[in-house]
Design goal:
The complex is a heterodimer. In chain A, strand 7 and strand 8 (74-78) form a beta hairpin. In chain A, the strands form two sheets. In chain A, strands 2, 4, 5, 6, 9, 10 and 11 form a seven-stranded mixed beta sheet that branches. By secondary structure, chain A is an all-beta fold. Chain A has strands at 5-7, 10-13, 19-24, 31-38, 42-50, 53-57, 64-68, 74-78, 87-94, 102-103, 107-111. By secondary structure, chain B is mainly β. Chain B is built from no helices and eleven strands. Chain B is globular. Classes of the chains: A mainly beta, B mainly beta. The interface between A and B is medium-sized, with 28 and 23 residues.
């Protein structure tokens, strides 16, 4: 059974640009959530989608957005990139709201 | 506001030693708690999930306990091996209906051969 797949694995962008990250959940999983991990702040929740609807959003500026498609694949977008957006972005999927979460390998974003 | 703390932040032990990692949370109204390991630059690997109604879960050499009333969980690793070297994170899910996990600060474990 394939795990959670995140693409790309590594990304280098320039300040002011925008970026789109992709997450394909485990087959049958309808819940996808996103987290940002930085050395200073640790793992922080960005948002979660379930059945194409955003169910919860963390305390991040509006530059961070996401969506989920009918096949449960999810994308997150960051516009007007700042140096502080450099981080490991992790995606997690689960079959339903109260079950175990499974994480992907992450996308390492570097903003220069 | 729920806060999750892990002590110690880093730990070095010789191979074969049994060890305990600690996770403390400030709000006992949790739905479940999950332990993860993270290798450098990699994603999170789920180790154990404990529902709020459970006291402990076991998987191989790992045993996790949960005491909601005191706001604590421990991860016990028996007969540690160099391959156990990683950062261990605990995360709590609140009962408020939110889907999000609140993560601890992590314990960086090094097992010396």
């Amino acid at each position: 059974k394939a795990g959670v797949t995140q693409t790309p694995r590594y990304l280098i962008k320039t300040r002011g640009q925008q970026v789109t990250l992709s997450c394909s959940p485990i087959s049958g999983h309808r819940s996808v959530s996103w987290y940002q991990q930085t050395p200073g702040q640790g793992l922080q929740f960005l948002f979660e989608y379930f059945s194409e609807t955003q169910r919860n959003k963390g305390n991040f500026p509006g530059r961070f957005s996401g969506r989920q498609f009918s096949n449960s694949r999810s994308e997150m977008n960051v516009s007007t990139l700042e140096l502080g957006d450099s981080a490991l972005y992790l995606c997690a999927s689960r079959p339903s709201r109260n079950t175990e979460a499974f994480f992907g390998q992450g996308t390492r974003l570097t903003v220069v | 506001k729920q806060e999750v703390t892990q002590i110690p932040a880093a730990l070095s032990v010789p191979e074969g030693e049994n060890l305990v990692l600690n996770c403390s949370f400030t709000d006992s109204a949790i739905y479940n708690l999950q332990w993860f390991r993270q290798d450098p630059g990699k994603g999170l690997t789920s180790l154990l999930l404990i529902q709020s109604s459970q006291r402990e879960q076991t998987s191989g050499r790992l045993n996790a306990s949960l005491d909601k009333s005191s706001g604590r969980s421990t991860l016990y690793i028996a007969a540690s091996q160099p391959g156990d070297s990683a950062t261990y994170l605990c995360a709590v899910k609140l009962t408020s209906g939110t889907y999000k996990y609140i993560f601890g600060t992590g314990t960086r474990l090094k097992v010396l051969a």
